[in-house]
Specification:
The protein has a 5-stranded parallel sheet with strand order 6-3-2-1-10. A 3-stranded parallel sheet has the order 7-8-9. It has helices spanning 3-35, 38-44, 75-83, 99-110, 144-147, 153-170, 200-217, 247-251, 255-263, 277-280, 290-300, 315-318, 323-333, 344-356, 362-385, and strands at residues 46-48, 88-91, 117-120, 122-124, 127-128, 174-175, 223-226, 268-271, 306-308, 338-339. The two termini are 39 Å apart. Strand 4 and strand 5 (127-128) form a beta hairpin. It has 2 domains: 1-35; 38-385, Glycoside hydrolase, family 3, N-terminal domain (TIM Barrel), CATH 3.20.20.300. It is built from 15 helices and 10 strands. By secondary structure, the chain is α/β, with parallel strands linked by helices.
Length: 386
């Protein structure tokens, strides 16, 4: 038997099977897209807080949301979801009381008409909505900067695997982690030890290790905060934040962990609301910049996955733009998913009307919805592995 011919035949068969599987998935996605209404397409591009489904709730700042005590799906929330479908729901610490309540809440959220994906920020360390809740007896990890200081990627992979496993057990699909920022500015008040390192190559190895852990556990990870929040001083949660770096400087530092994460199979990247005046020539936040998202991320870096914003309710956006305008601008810039918009029905209608009057082509919406449907397919396949 000619073993070279057998081996060659095996690789041809494997490639053919891979192509068939890919073609089958693409065909299924196109069929789903064809069956969706424009309202369903637009809705899939929003990942929201549960509070915005209760139209009696209005908040100027997320800090007041705890007082609304949203821990379950109400009839009013169900009615809003029927008219204003959404692609995903993100839960925060104040939405989570104990394991029993969380399980019921997630089950009821997933049963909403659009069957949204369930998301959370569970980085480890100071940002861990479940592990830092005393009613959950879960392993706690140090901030990733501390954990990565040993230089052993195995520890980071094991931590991410554990985090992913308990998130999956409660029904979460997406973890907004790892932080791919490089902590180069000692005065940074928002990233700090959440980043793996102040050395880009070290951060890159740890980002890959963290993604590997989430992938092993069947949870989708998300690189954040593109194009890098580690060199800023201001906190974009509260207002304008910027970096004076040129693109050449960013490419030689901040992009190293992001490129490593893309090569490791990252399916999602979260934007930062930071301005890069020496790159774009303006103070427009990166989330709203076609140059940053399309020319740099999609074009130069070749990223094919889903782009999601950081929370659109943050000060760096809302102190400069009306909520509706910011949403439309983000989609025009190349964003696929808008996270945490305030006044959801109002913003939903603004995007829908922008499409209807031709300001945003429906073909542009379809581009994003294809990526969202692909992510949903991957979420289901991840679940089958568990």
């Amino acid at each position: 038997m000619n073993m070279k011919k057998v081996a060659a035949g095996f690789f041809v068969l494997a490639a053919a099977l891979g192509f068939t599987a890919c073609s089958s998935e693409n065909a299924a996605i196109e069929q789903e897209l064809k069956q969706m209404t424009l309202q369903e397409k637009v809705g899939s591009m929003f990942f929201v807080r549960p509070e915005v489904l209760d139209t009696d709730i209005y908040y100027d700042s997320p800090t007041v949301l705890k007082s609304f005590d949203v821990h379950q799906v109400t009839d009013k929330m169900k009615e809003t979801a029927r008219v204003y479908p959404m692609g995903g729901v993100i839960l925060f610490s104040h939405n989570i009381k104990d394991p029993q309540q969380l399980s019921q809440f997630i089950s009821d959220l997933r049963a909403l008409p659009s069957h949204p994906l369930l998301c959370i920020d569970e980085e480890g360390g100071s940002v861990a909505r479940l592990a830092n809740n005393p009613n959950f007896h879960l392993p706690k990890f140090a901030n990733m900067g501390t954990l990565a200081a040993s230089g052993r990627t195995k520890e980071v992979t094991e931590a991410a695997t554990t985090i992913g496993e308990y998130l999956k057990s409660y029904g979460f699909d997406i973890d907004f982690a790892p932080v791919a920022d490089v902590n180069t500015n000692p005065r940074n008040v928002v990233i700090g030890a959440r980043a793996f390192s102040n050395e880009p190559k070290v951060a890159a190895e740890m980002v890959k290790a963290y993604l590997k852990g989430l992938q092993k556990s069947g949870v989708i990870g998300c690189l954040k905060h593109f194009p890098g929040h580690g060199d800023t001083q201001a906190d974009s949660h509260f207002g304008y934040a910027m970096s004076r770096k040129t693109w050449e400087e960013i490419r030689d530092c901040e992009m190293i962990p992001f490129k490593a994460g893309m090569e490791a199979g990252a399916q999602m990247i979260m934007t930062a609301h930071i301005s890069l005046p020496n790159v774009t020539g303006s103070n427009v936040p990166s989330t709203l910049s076609p140059m940053i998202l399309q020319e740099k991320l999609r074009g130069e870096l070749g990223y094919k996955g889903l782009i999601i914003t950081d929370a659109m309710e943050m000060g760096a956006i809302l102190r400069q733009y009306p909520v509706e305008d910011a949403a439309v601008m983000a989609i025009k810039a190349g964003v696929d998913v808008l996270l945490c918009v305030r006044e959801y029905p109002k913003v939903f209608d603004a995007v829908l009307n922008a499409v209807r009057r031709g300001e945003i082509p429906e073909s542009r919406i379809d581009e994003s919805v294809r990526r969202i449907l692909q992510l949903r397919h991957h979420s289901i396949s991840y679940g089958d592995k568990k």
